[in-house]
Amino acid sequence: VNGVRGRSPLAVRVRALVDRARRDYDGHPQASPVLVELAARLDEPLRVAIAGRVKSGKSTLVNALVGEPLAATEVGECTRVVTWYRSGHRYRAFVQRAGSGLEPATLRRLRGAVDIEPGDWTPGELERIVIDWPAAVLGSMTLIDTPGLGSLSAPVGARAEEFLSQVHGSSPADAVVYLARHLHGADVRVLEAFRDDDAGRPSPINAVAVVARADEIGAARPTAMDAAARVAARYRQDPQIRRLCQTAVPVAGMLAFGSSQLTESDFRAVGRLAEAGQPVTDELLLSTDRFAMDDEVAGLEAVERRRLLDLLGLFGVRIACGLLRDGVVRTGPGLAVALRARSGIDELRALLATQFAARSDLLKARVALATLNRLVHEVPLARGASFESELERVEADSHELTELRLLVAVRTGRVGLGDEEIAEVERLVERSGAPITERLGLAADVGDDELRRVVTSSVERWRRRAEHPLAPRDTVDAASVVLRTYEGILLELEPAPVG
Amino acid sequence: VSDREIAVRLAEHGIKAATAYGRPDLADRIRSSIDRILDPTVRVLVVGEFKQGKSSLVNAIVGRPVCPVDDDVATAVPTAVRFAEQPVAMAVVRDDDDLRRQPIEVTALPAWVTEAGVEVANHEVELVEVGVASDVLRDGLVLVDLPGVGGLGSLPGAVTMASLPYARAVVFVSDAAQELTAPELDFVRGLTRQCPLVALVDSKIDIHPAWRQVIAADASDIAGLAQGPFAVSSELASKAAESDDDVLAAESGVVPVVEWLRGEVLAGAARRDASLMAEVVGAVAAQLAGPLEAERSALADPGAAAALAAQLEVAQAEALRLRTAAGRWQQALTDAFADLSGDLDHDLRYRVRDVVNAADETFDGIDPAKTWDTYEPQLRRDVAGLVADHYRILDERITAATETVAAVFTEDAESVQATVREAAGGDRSHDLPGRSPDSERTLTGGKRAGLGTQALTLLRSSYGGAIMLSFLGATIGFPVVAPAALGVGLMLGAHGLRQESSRQLLQRRAQAKATVRSYVDEISFVVSKDSRDRIRFSQRHLRDFFAARASELYQSALASLQAVQEATGSASVDRETRQADVAAELDRIAWLARAAADIRAALEERAGS
Which residues of chain A neighbour B203 with C-beta distances below 8 Å? Predict the structure, then answer.
């Protein structure tokens, strides 16, 4: 109801455009396969790439999001081939070599993670691995784990960059989650390079940044996540990052995943640790070396402690101990929930749901339009003029796309609006997948009349802004877009008031 | 007894001898070198990517929290930590074009050196110096905590590279969360090309269970390139310092780093400085011996004294010419530096033109509005590379020029000396180690390259002291145009492009090219000014250095002539007494020369082992 839209008018128009292109280009050796794939893509879940520099915790985050140990996460560099995790009824795997289709492969478990049996291919020639997996989260988005940027292995690094910058072809991902331990120069450059044409580039629309391995900030002290939250808050204010990403959130991927794997015996182990008293645990938790030492300490064998360390990390064990000692949690499931809550994964999930999943039509439409645009230019049709103008029309008069352009313009500081107005525009457009009350910055339980009153007064306010005779052109344009958005919301409110 | 103390004692003997024989100029030469021995500043740069624990490492090494450490905020201003009995802090602040030193509260450091502080206070801080009473620093070690570099391709990275000739060693810090990344390893490779002493520290081993695997991987990555890796936990070190816990201190792994700094870095520097001192004393001994030898010849054969005096007059004239603008080395210096400035100017222009041309070409075929964002990071990388390359060439050329001038000077100086020696009549009974006739060692007491090395070492230490400060800051504070601002104009109207006229496209191209040009010009203006400053400083320094050496030679020739003239005027009874005195004095000088030579040999042997 409230704000969650059905198939949007834009999606319908884009669908029609793609269908028309398929007819027009029917049988064309170059264009036809692209369009078949594009049409299929519109029906698929949103494709979300998990990107970042080497060892930034991409695979761990995939596992945390899915809640199962899928991607290998070891000390060395793990992900060397782009790996797609798709929703499927059965467990299946495929590989794809450059320039050819998917070939079936055999799944196996390797040290807990999912892997494929070696086949008659070399890892170097694989373009991607596709894993079909029945997991709820994959129903709303396909996750794409990418090799790390800045890898010491030149081919791996090159593959990652190639995937992300996509010099040719359409952007394989609709949205990107960019992981960085610290978003500094190099990461910003990588983000800048991640783009093809209009649709694939990271923008306040399709990219979110994650302050990854957040638990390691500040010597993994119990306050690490608070520090990480401050780091993320600063990134959200950084103009360079604002024009590339919608927002930034801290996530401790290892803790998020580890908490989902916590067993009853792990819980009891933490309990014994907590009982040993703070002086003992403090001493023991000074370093991972101490915690993993061979001797039995606090009634815990080395093997039990090492499992806890592998599962939760030093930060996780430290706060788990504290939670039990202070009596904040008393049960295994309770501990798991408390740890997950601290990991920040819930916030990221919510963000992906409202910002990506709920807007998947829009995000996919952008990619589709960009692909069609490129196609029209690379493979012109004899009677292409009418198709081209239809394409332009869709791009020009889809209000959703206009809104996104406004958002980018606002984020890059190219529109003369006040700070409060900018915040208003951001909330309105960025959160287009969220309930109307949230988009307006109102409490969720606000009454319909009040809602209408607020929207009506906003319409008035922005109309005055748009019609102000002395306002500069860019402000007038921006105000007109906002005005139309509010008018749209008003329309939505009129016929069927929310119950 | 340390190498520095031995060198100081030798120097004191040298000064005493020079003063006794009436050569204050030679005593001064030794004194100026003593200053270096007594103030043995050894700069070590601590570098690495952002938030790897560089400041924490500096704190762990000096054993107290000096550099501000924050979970979030990074160091933004280079911080030099040196020894001082009382805590003291000094900020080097830019005032228009001048640098001003200003005392600051030690407790206010975070406001001066961190990202957040710099933003809030809006200071134009170039560098902050902190003095603390840490034993590790007592012997002259200065740790320079640099802001994080975003790889070789970043401007701070280029700046680090450019300051390498003025640093004794570099510590590269990377946390044990993961193996070195490709950009990090590239950076380490770049460091080792210009600084022979580079060590890798893998930090934060307290929170990374798999640090041993990371260390093993890094060890093979840097094998043959850098020393280490040292596994360090600064966190454990600071806890150990708080609670005086020796076990914990050992676990922190900081001790081996301190030992490396003490051994390889400090002791190595002391050895080099002591060796240089011994070389100077040897040269002084040779200068002192000259007049005595001439006198000895005159006393031994009064009949030949007139001819001897005539020859010494020739030598004196030659030495005089060496001292004036007519000296060949003067011309060599002028020529070398004229070439060098021309070439470097050209080098910079050429590199700038390349970047600008490449930009022009890039934009000719395409619409800048669409490609600017991908192009711009490339532009910044190109410019950073340009800066780093230019400074590397600058250093190489100054080194080469110094050696050229030293070779010319040494040749002429030897000819003066040969004239004196010929006059003295080939008596080898009092041969000094500094002047064996095979001319492997020259009058000035060093190997052929010796004078050049001396000049260069002095140049670098004085330049480093005076200018590295302003340089480091000036370049980090480059007028870097905010990247977002660069392309803004171009993005306007990036939509609905197809409807636009080609005139607008042309306009955008012109605008893009102009943007690139003004950005590159701005950077190259700063670099070329700094580059010219360095060249001018080096030239002046070298001129002073060789002029002083020429003056010493002239004084020696003059003293020889006077000694001969006095000898011819004395009675025969006095002559015999005087002969014995001269022989004894020559013995004393020979002892000094031999002591200097022995010390050098011992130091060199130790350096080699």
Answer: none
Pairing of strands B98-104, B88-95: antiparallel
Q: Across the interface, do B213 and A76 touch by the CB < 8 Å criterion?
A: yes
> Tokens in use for B531?
């580059």
The residues near A421 (Cβ < 8 Å, ≥ 6 apart) are none
- Whether B207 sits inside 8 A of A151 (CB atoms) is no
Contact residues on chain B for A220, CB-CB shorter than 8 A: 206-207
What's the whole-model pTM score?
A: 0.79
Closest chain A C-alpha to B374 CA, distance in angstroms: 6
Sheet holding A102-105, edge to edge: A102-105, A92-97, A126-133, A83-87, A141-145, A46-52, A175-180, A207-211, A248-250
Q: A42 vs chain B: nearest CA distance in angstroms?
A: 24
> Does residue A107 carry a pLDDT above 80?
yes
Neighbouring C-beta atoms of residue A273, cutoff 10 Å: 26
- Contact A160/B at CB under 8 A: no
DSSP E strands, A46-187: 46-52, 83-87, 92-97, 102-105, 107-110, 113-116, 126-133, 141-145, 175-180
Chain B residues lying within 8 Å of A290, measured CB to CB: 251
Residues of B in contact with A78 (CB under 8 A): none
Return the DSSP state at A444.
T
Determine whether the interchain pair B374/A195 forms a contact, defined as Cβ–Cβ distance below 8 Å. yes
Cα-Cα-Cα-Cα dihedral sign, residues B442, B445, B446, B449: negative
Q: How far apart are CA B69 and CA B59, in angstroms?
A: 9
**Cβ-Cβ contacts under 8 Å, A392 against chain B:** 496, 498
Whether chain B has a CB inside 8 Å of the CB on A186: the answer is yes
The answer to whether the beta carbons of residues B123 and B91 sit under 8 Å apart is: yes
Answer whether A6 touches B (CB < 8 Å): no
For position B593, what pLDDT does the model report?
A: 93
Question: How close, in Å, is residue B81 to chain A by CA atoms?
Answer: 23
Q: What's CA A470's distance to the chain center, in Å?
A: 41
* Window 366-425 of A, Cβ < 8 Å to B: 392, 396, 405, 412-414
The answer to whether residues B1 and B10 touch, using CB atoms and an 8 Å cutoff, is no
3-state SS assignment for residue A189: helix
CA distance linking residue B186 with residue B379, whole number of Å: 19
Q: How many beta carbons lie within 10 A of that of residue B40, not counting itself?
A: 17
Closest CB from A77, A184, A218 relative to B148: A184
B139 vs B268: CA distance, rounded Å: 12
Among B72, B148, B233, the residue with its CB nearest the CB of A230 is B72
Strand, coil or helix: A149: strand
- Residues of chain A contacting B185 with CB distance shorter than 8 Å: 152
Q: CB distance B181–A150 less than 8 Å? A: yes
Partner-chain contact B251 A289, CB within 8 Å = yes
Q: Which residues of B touch A313 (CB under 8 A)?
A: 207
Residue A160 contacts residue B124 (beta carbons within 8 Å)? no
- Written in H, E and C, the secondary structure of B360-381 is HHHHHCCCHHHHHHHHHHHHHH
Whether ipTM exceeds 0.90:
no
> Which residue matches tokens 């350096």?
B607
Per-residue pLDDT reduced to its tens digit, B325-367: 778 899 999 999 999 999 999 988 888 888 888 888 877 777 6
Is 90 exceeded by the pLDDT of residue B504? no
| Four-residue CA torsion sign, B93, B99, B100, B102 | positive
Of A275, A252, A361, A380, nearest to A325 (Cα)?
Answer: A275
DSSP secondary structure letter of residue A300: B
Highest mean pLDDT among A427-441, B393-407, B501-515: B393-407
Mean local confidence (pLDDT), A400-414: 78
